[in-house]
């Protein structure tokens, strides 16, 4: 009887430890425009928008971010990078990058550097390009 009470108490404490992470992830809104890093300086929007860019080290951190980029000509990517950058993308939590008819990550002027993905042990990165009705690309 005593062991089961301790188990339940520890289980409730465990659940309370999870609550701040769930609440902070829920506060980040879906971003519907391209994150254009071609002219960005270092910027930390990790707590408010779910991304952080370090221009010196070329590290983009994504944390529970949700991009769903849609536009009239169906060609904008979620993230746009410079041609010569060697970029590392570190992702934490559950991240979704979704665009229409275009790469979710676009390198302006073609690939001139490298793109490396690194995730935390429990991280998920969902990449999705959605098909729209009425194909205008024929």
What does this structure look like?
The protein has one domain (30-130). 18% of the residues lie in helices and 35% in strands. Mean pLDDT is 78; it is low at 19-26. The chain is an alpha/beta fold.
Short description:
This protein is an alpha/beta fold. It has one domain (30-130). It has one helix and eleven strands, in the order H-E-E-E-E-E-E-E-E-E-E-E.
Secondary structure layout plus pairing:
Elements: H1 2-26, E1 35-36, E2 43-45, E3 51-54, E4 59-63, E5 66-68, E6 79-81, E7 87-92, E8 94-100, E9 105-107, E10 115-119, E11 124-130
Parallel strand pairs: 1-6, 4-7, 5-8, 6-9, 7-10, 8-11
Antiparallel strand pairs: 2-3, 3-4
Using brief descriptors, characterize the structure shown.
138 residues, alpha/beta, five-stranded mixed sheet, three-stranded parallel sheet, 1 helix, globular
Distance between the termini: 71 Å
Extract low-pLDDT stretches. 19-26
SS element count, helices: 1
On the 0 to 100 scale, the average pLDDT is: 78
What oligomeric assembly is this protein in?
Answer: single chain
């Amino acid at each position: 009887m005593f062991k089961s009470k301790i188990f339940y108490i520890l289980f409730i404490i465990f659940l309370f430890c999870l609550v701040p992470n769930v609440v902070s992830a829920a506060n980040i809104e879906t971003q519907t425009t391209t994150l254009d890093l071609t002219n960005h300086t270092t910027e930390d929007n990790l707590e408010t928008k779910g991304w952080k860019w370090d221009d010196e080290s070329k590290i983009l951190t994504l944390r529970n971010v949700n991009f769903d980029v849609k536009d009239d000509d169906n060609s904008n990517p979620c993230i746009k990078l410079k041609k010569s950058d060697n970029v590392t993308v570190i992702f934490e939590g559950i991240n979704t990058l979704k665009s229409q008819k275009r790469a979710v990550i676009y390198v302006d002027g073609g690939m001139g550097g490298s793109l490396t993905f690194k995730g935390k042990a429990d991280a998920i990165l969902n990449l999705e390009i959605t098909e729209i009705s009425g194909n205008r690309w024929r």
